[in-house]
Structure formats: C-alpha cells, structure tokens
TrEMBL record:
<dbReference type="InterPro" id="IPR036555">
    <property type="entry name" value="NusA_N_sf"/>
</dbReference>
<dbReference type="Pfam" id="PF13184">
    <property type="entry name" value="KH_NusA_1st"/>
</dbReference>
<protein>
    <recommendedName>
        <fullName>Transcription termination/antitermination protein NusA</fullName>
    </recommendedName>
</protein>
<feature type="domain" description="NusA-like second KH">
    <location>
        <begin position="284"/>
        <end position="347"/>
    </location>
</feature>
<comment type="similarity">
    <text>Belongs to the NusA family.</text>
</comment>
<keyword id="KW-0694">RNA-binding</keyword>
<keyword id="KW-0889">Transcription antitermination</keyword>
<dbReference type="InterPro" id="IPR058582">
    <property type="entry name" value="KH_NusA_2nd"/>
</dbReference>
<dbReference type="GO" id="GO:0006353">
    <property type="term" value="P:DNA-templated transcription termination"/>
</dbReference>
<keyword id="KW-0963">Cytoplasm</keyword>
<dbReference type="GO" id="GO:0031564">
    <property type="term" value="P:transcription antitermination"/>
</dbReference>
<dbReference type="Pfam" id="PF08529">
    <property type="entry name" value="NusA_N"/>
</dbReference>
<feature type="domain" description="Transcription factor NusA N-terminal">
    <location>
        <begin position="6"/>
        <end position="125"/>
    </location>
</feature>
<keyword id="KW-0806">Transcription termination</keyword>
<dbReference type="GO" id="GO:0003723">
    <property type="term" value="F:RNA binding"/>
</dbReference>
<dbReference type="InterPro" id="IPR010213">
    <property type="entry name" value="TF_NusA"/>
</dbReference>
<feature type="domain" description="Transcription factor NusA first KH">
    <location>
        <begin position="202"/>
        <end position="279"/>
    </location>
</feature>
C-alpha cells in the first residue's frame, strides 16, 4: 500500500488536468524508469507492473545469485547469504526478484520524481493541445479578452487555453476591452519550446468565408459555394459565389432582403464594405461583375500576360477605381488579371486635356495623389465632378478642392 499512497500523492492533480488513469500510469512508468536509470545506471533488470484499475504499480528488481566473496555489481547481483534470507533453498546462478518500495528511494528522490511527473503531464497536455488546435486551423473560434497589449491581445477560451491575436491580424477598427468575446479563425499553431502558441486572425480571407458559412444557411448546406474571397480588412471585400441549382440566386440569398443576411457579417468586420458577385467562368463577364458598381463598355484580354484593358466612359472611371483604388485592386485579385483602365470620351476634349501632374508647381503632390486614388488624373476629369461628391470621396477639404478647380479653370480660360 506504500506505493499506492505515494502514487496518489503524485497524481492528486490529475482531475484538474482531465488526464485518464491509463495515461497517467503510462507516464508514471516512464518517470520511474528514468529514475531507476539515474540511480542504477540501467533499468534493464527492473520490472514495473501497472494496475490502472486500482491506480497502483509495483517495481521488482531482478538480481543473479553469486557467492558471498564474488559480489561485483550489487544492483545486478545478490550474495547467496542475502538471497537465502528471502528464500532458504536458493542456489548460486538463480535469479531473485525483490520488490522495491518507493519509500526506500529516499525523500529527495521522491521529490524529484514528483517534479518530473508534473513536467511530463504538462508535456502531455501541451501535445494534446497542439493536436487539438492543429485540427481547428481555418475554423472560426471564440475566446474572451484576457489582456490587451499594444502589439497583441491575449485571449482565453472556456478551457483556459491562451490564444494570441496579434495587432497585424486585427481589423484596423477593432477595439477590445477585458472580458469582450472575440471571433476569428485559428490561423496557425506553433510549438514554442514545449508550449503551443495559438494564433488567431480576423484579417484573413478565410475568416470572411467561414462567416458566410455560419451566417448563410445555403452556404452551410453546400447549396451555394464561395468560390473566391479577397479583402482589404476593415475597408472593402469582394466575394464570388455560385450555385449548381439554377433556381437559387446565390447573390440574393447571401445578401438577403434589404441586406438582412449580410448585415451581421459587415458589423462583425467593422463595417467592411462587402460586394457579393455571381461567379462565372466567362472571364470578360467575371471582370465586368468584379468592377461593379462601374459599368464597363468593353474589355480586351491578353491571356498570356494575364492583363486586361478595361474601357470605361469617363464618368465610370472613378467608380471602377474606387476610394483609395480599392475597387480595382480587389477586382484584379478576384479575377487573377491585372486591370488597366482605358477612358472613353470626347476625342476633342481628350486631346485638349492636361495631366494633373503638369500642375505640380501650383498644386501639392499629396493633393494630386488624392485625386489619382479615385481615378482623376487629368484637369477635365476633375472639372466635371461635383464639389460635394469630391469632398465625400477624398480626404480633401472643400476649400482645397475649390482652389484646385480655380487653378484648372484658369488653364482652359487663358
């Protein structure tokens, strides 16, 4: 019973760790074998008998009987006199098995055994945790904010596991307080030493795809497929969807009546503007849809270079490019083509037009860049715009825009 009592004292924390008896006993055997090797140099002549049902184990040492004056290795051999104290009819050359009591190892050895056992169980827990979260990579996971640091948010799940949400994996508008519940996908799991480091992401395209699965029943059921997702986190995203069933409108089903279905996803992503489009293998039609809300006049495709010239009326150019160039950038990523915008317009006016960079001595370069971001890089393209619309679509003040228009008008009125 001495062994049983000691083992129970070693394993008193097993319930907290949710480790089963069989696994615990296997770890115990490994720990004790290491201790025997350390004390005797080898564990080859020791038998460890495990009884997981009782939670008990026995250690037996096997030694060969030698003459009293012939003892050389006392951990492998036993004298005839000592052997006959165990059983009177033993003879030289026979093998004796004798039980080793854990208490006989000494207090210091027992403390070392306990520490080694704790270490092994932590290692076992970490291995299981690593495997558990490896299987969850690419899946949505929810955890609670435990600590907010400048470059990282530390999250804790219901089982007390630590999950890391780095700053670069957060949506720019994300703001967290201790106790907040946070959703993201498990992006990666890495072993740092023996401890798994679990990384969550809210900026991944996979997160948006999985949100569609969670929020839209037809996607979850496989009636609608998400073919491709591209994002500028917190700003804009484009999602191409398709359905094998002609009776299902994939875009309508994803958006919902008055945007009811997609609203929850938009809110989760910090009001990220999400364009949902019908996927098609017709690349010209696909590019046209990807550039929505702009209306494309025509497209010239070069399959070898994966480039496409997109012809648009002057008033559609800024829509195609979008605020900050986001729309055309995402359309290119979605379709896999580099898109070049070609303006269509009045030939006489175009010949008479002037590149905005020609005014760099009168207009600041950063102001010129702001107009270029929304596809306005000539004098006439700006003069055709409404001032209030330009204030809304750029980061420029009304006074600055009016000043630019005055400079441009003087060019044509001179």
């Amino acid at each position: 019973m001495e062994n049983l009592a000691l083992i129970d004292s070693f394993s008193e924390f097993k319930d907290d760790k949710l480790i089963d008896r069989v696994t615990l006993m296997a770890i115990l055997e490994d720990v004790f074998r290491n201790a025997l090797k350390k004390k005797f140099g080898s564990d080859d002549n020791f038998d460890i008998i495990i009884n997981p049902d009782k939670g008990d184990m026995e250690i037996w040492q096997r030694r060969v009987i030698v003459a009293d004056d012939d003892l050389d290795l006392d951990h492998l051999e036993i004298t005839l006199t000592e052997a006959r104290k165990i059983e009177p009819d033993f003879e030289i050359g026979e093998e004796v098995s004798e039980e080793v009591k854990l208490i006989d190892l000494g207090r210091r050895a027992i403390l070392a055994l306990r520490q080694n056992l704790i270490s092994k169980i932590h290692e076992h827990d970490n291995t299981n945790l690593y495997k558990q979260f490896k299987d969850l990579i690419g899946e949505i996971y929810t955890a609670e904010v435990h600590h907010v640091r400048p470059r990282v948010v530390i999250l804790i799940d219901d089982e007390g596991n630590e999950i890391i949400l780095p700053k670069e994996k957060q949506i720019p508008s994300d703001f967290f307080r201790k106790g907040d519940n946070v959703r993201g996908i498990i992006e990666s799991v890495e072993l740092k030493g023996n401890k798994p480091q679990i990384i969550m992401s809210r900026t991944s395209e996979k997160f948006l795809e999985k949100l569609f699965e969670q929020e839209i029943p037809e996607v979850f059921d496989g009636l609608i497929m998400v073919k491709n997702v591209v994002r500028i986190p917190g700003e804009k995203a484009k999602v191409a969807v398709d359905s094998y069933d002609d009776r299902i409108d994939p875009v309508g089903a994803c958006v919902g009546m008055k945007g009811s279905r997609i609203h929850g996803i938009v809110r989760e992503l910090g009001n990220e503007n999400i364009d949902v489009i019908n996927y098609t293998s017709n690349i010209q039609l696909y590019i046209t849809r990807a550039l929505s809300p702009a209306k494309v006049s025509s497209i010239k495709i070069n399959e070898e270079t994966k480039r496409a010239e997109v012809f648009l009326k002057l008033e559609e150019v800024s829509k195609a490019i979008g605020r900050g160039g986001h729309n055309i950038k995402l359309a290119g990523q979605l379709t896999g083509y580099e898109l070049d915008v070609i303006r269509e317009g009045n030939v006489a006016e175009e010949e008479d037009d002037v590149e905005l960079t020609e005014f760099s001595d009168e207009i600041d370069e950063w102001v010129i860049e702001e107009f270029a971001k929304i596809g306005l890089d000539t004098a006439r393209s700006i003069l055709k715009q409404d001032v209030n619309d330009l204030v809304r679509r750029t980061d420029l003040e009304e006074e600055t825009i009016l000043d630019v228009m005055r400079i441009l008008k003087e060019e044509f009125n001179a």
